[in-house]
Design goal:
Layout: E1 4-10, H1 25-43, E2 48-53, E3 60-66, H2 69-78, H3 87-99, E4 107-114, H4 122-134, E5 137-143, H5 149-162, E6 170-172, H6 180-185, H7 188-191, H8 202-208, H9 224-248, H10 275-306
Parallel strand pairs: 1-2, 1-4, 4-5, 5-6
Antiparallel strand pairs: 2-3
Length: 307
Amino acid sequence: MVLEATMIVVDNSESSRNGDYVPSRWEAQSDAVNLIFSAKTQANPESSVGLMSMGGKGPEVLVTLTTDFGKVLDGIHRTKIRGSTHLATGIQIAGLALKHRQNKSQRQRIIVFTCSPIEESEKDLVKLAKRMKKNNISIDFIAFGDLEPDNTKKLELFNENIKGGDGSHLAIIPPGPSLLSDTLVTTPILSADGVAPRGGGAEEGGAEGGGSGFEFGIDPSTDPELALALRMSMEEEKARQEKEGKKDEPKGESLEGIPEENQPLLNAQGEASGSGGDKMDEDKKESSESKEGKKDGDGDGDKMDTA
């Protein structure tokens, strides 16, 4: 898989307090950051991920490029929600962090979450996009929250000017009942890393759930108890069918010509039983009788000599 160094830029502005995404815009970002980290490191264990915020007084690097998931979690928990976003400055600082990566063979990628109004002008964004493309940096945008036409237009213009060989993607995710991370899995941002939807593979869900993408056509994240009950019911039915199939199988040919051996493996003397053992017992009995007869004959001869 692709060896990448990825900087994740989260939007911790006041707009991230909104609860139009489950459970909130900030919590939805945190869950998605966990998913992205897992996807990148599982696709290639040598890939590294960093984290930074772009809200408040200015952008802040929370975690430099690392493969330690604990550091990323700690960075998320230390982040405070405040102020407004600084999109252009945040992208430039993320680019500098990628420039100082230890493994220079890693491809450079920035994933930006944005859920607040974009204050930068279209001209400034186009200029920044061309500069990032010149430095071979791919940038993915995850737009959610404030999806005003002005915002989406700026992001689309930025994406058009940065598209390159490695691919830069724009995912616009409107509010809905599904989690932000579950919707993110279906976008090109993560589908290229071979991430399967939560709750089962897409192929199995399409075959058994009517093409809904989830096993049995139900999203386990929304109703885990029902999904578990359906899975257990399917396993019980499968086991019952296998048991009935074994009963209906034709039995093998009867071994009437072969006598059954019900006798124990060893006889009373601790020797092997069976036809061979019985024959040996008979031979021993005959030899002992012949020895006794000979002994008697010798005894009689001695008596006659004495007389």
